[in-house]
Design a protein that fits this description.
The chain contains ten helices and 19 strands. The chain has about 400 residues and is α+β, with helices and mostly antiparallel strands. It has three domains: about 110 residues, Aminopeptidase (3-Layer(aba) Sandwich); about 160 residues, Gcn5-related N-acetyltransferase (GNAT) (Aminopeptidase, 3-Layer(aba) Sandwich), CATH 3.40.630; about 90 residues, SCP2 sterol-binding domain (Nonspecific Lipid-transfer Protein, Chain A, 2-Layer Sandwich), CATH 3.30.1050. A hairpin with an 8-residue loop joins strand 10 and strand 11. The longest helix is centred in the N-terminal third of the chain and has 15 residues. The structure holds coenzyme A.
């Protein structure tokens, strides 16, 4: 019997939940000013609290969105955010209780997927989440980074005042994204998190828009920080958000960033297959300093998720999926180039995997045969794993690109 209870937050309890998160993430005390900026996006709806004798000791929430899957369908998704347990109540099952309650709630809401970005990688696998997209952390030495003469010329880039950015960027994102598996629609509740940073909390984010032959087709949000005490004067530029409708806009935005006076280095998290390094005359100016887990995906409704994505041409394969927390997902599924169907238990399975590992292959981040080699899934024959590789493969790598 646990000494805490889980319930939905009531209206009026949001601020204490946000303050708890702040403390759990070691961000210090929450000020009125900061809460004023964050409160519009921090709703009680979809947010749980764990209470011990009426005192809030943990919280977890989500916002409703859609996630793009291979083939372009957008699936109803709960984006899980604001997870924290008070430091004097950790390792007593509070998170596990919050996660269990939340999974059941997301299923009741008809959401097919849940996704999150993890503070630490050891936490979420046990709840059926798997790493479904990776990103590369890059450092670019600006003075060495020249775009090759064959790189697309790109169009014009203009800086936006914060008020104009708030108006323009959400509509532009809606028009040009999601362009990769794993990308999210950004609901209204998401934008206040982005825009509070234009207002100086994290030190002045700047927005710029790219205009190509058919109008606005890309944007970047970035920040420049001087290197204190450095002589001569130098600065670092951090790219926070960059989306482009195509290669012209992508090259145009990077040309703009790489031309920024007084900047020494640029830093960004980008899709692992973004082709910018190949646009440079000196490939070594684009230094990959890490490849990391980006989105963790939880497939809540396996039949719906498997039916919603497209597959590459290959011979069929039969999967056996196991899901201890949502057992209605456990079962056998035939995957063909034309789709997926659920089978009875009398069909022999060729590839056995947990729902967390299904999430790893679902958007195309990992090849099933590579996971078979690590023991994360079991394939009856190497040839069955190769068929699964072909069916689940995607022309571009998945990427989320939306922080939350
Ligand atoms: C991470 C955090 C939410 C875990 O909450 P908790 O209530 O201690 O978790 P639980 O007691 O339910 O633990 C569930 C399991 O996860 C493990 N676990 C929890 N946090 C872990 C961590 N940081 N690293 C490794 N394992 C962890 C526990 O050991 C336990 O394992 P078991 O099932 O084998 O017994 C909490 O420590 C916290 O708030 N940390 C700071 C803020 C943070 O990181 N938030 C997450 C943002 S994504």
């Amino acid at each position: 019997m646990s000494d805490f209870a889980i319930r939905n937050l009531a209206d009026g309890e949001q601020r204490s939940a946000f303050a708890l998160l702040y403390q759990a993430l070691h961000r210090g005390a929450l000020t009125d000013e900061h809460w004023g900026r964050r409160s519009p996006g921090f709703l009680a709806d979809r947010r749980y609290g764990a209470f011990a004798e009426d005192e809030l000791i943990g919280t977890a929430g989500s916002f409703g969105t859609e996630l793009a899957v291979p083939g372009g369908a957008l699936l109803p998704t709960g984006a899980v955010d604001g997870v924290g347990v008070r430091a004097d109540h950790t390792r007593r099952g509070v998170l596990s209780a919050l996660m269990g309650e939340q999974l059941r709630d997301l299923v009741r809401r008809g959401e097919v997927l849940a996704c999150l970005h993890a503070s630490e990688t050891a936490i979420y696998g046990r709840f059926g989440y798997g790493v479904a997209s990776l990103d590369q952390r890059v450092r670019i030495t600006r003075r060495a980074a020249r775009l090759h003469q064959d790189a697309p010329a790109g169009g014009r880039v203009r800086l936006l005042a914060p008020e104009a950015a708030v108006e323009l960027i959400p509509a532009l994102y809606r028009r040009i994204a999601p362009s990769r598996p794993g990308m999210l629609s950004r609901p209204e509740v998401w934008w206040p998190m982005r825009f509070e940073r234009f207002r100086g909390h994290d030190g002045g984010h700047i927005a710029a828009v790219h205009t190509g032959a058919d109008g606005d087709d890309g944007f970047v949000v970035y920040q420049v920080n001087e290197r204190h005490g450095a002589q001569p004067h130098t600065a670092d530029l951090t790219v926070h958000d960059l989306h482009a409708a195509g290669p012209e806009a992508l090259a145009g935005l990077w040309r703009f960033l790489l031309g920024m006076d007084l900047v020494d280095e640029l830093h960004a998290y980008r899709p692992v297959d973004e082709p910018v390094a190949a646009m440079l005359t000196d490939l070594r100016a684009w230094q990959v300093t890490g490849v990391e887990d980006e989105s963790w995906l939880r497939i809540l409704d396996v039949p719906a998720a498997l039916a919603a994505r497209t597959y590459q041409r290959a011979e069929p394969v039969v999967l056996e999926v196991s899901d201890a927390l949502l057992p209605e997902n456990s079962g056998r599924y035939r995957i063909t180039a034309d789709g997926a169907e659920r089978l009875g238990d009398d069909t022999e399975a060729e590839v056995r995997l947990g729902v967390d590992v299904l999430a790893m292959i679902y958007l195309g981040a990992w090849a099933p045969s590579a996971l078979a080699a690590t023991g994360r899934l079991q394939a009856r024959t190497p040839e069955a794993a190769r068929r699964a590789d072909e069916l689940f493969g995607t022309p571009v790598k998945p990427w989320c690109g939306t922080g939350f």
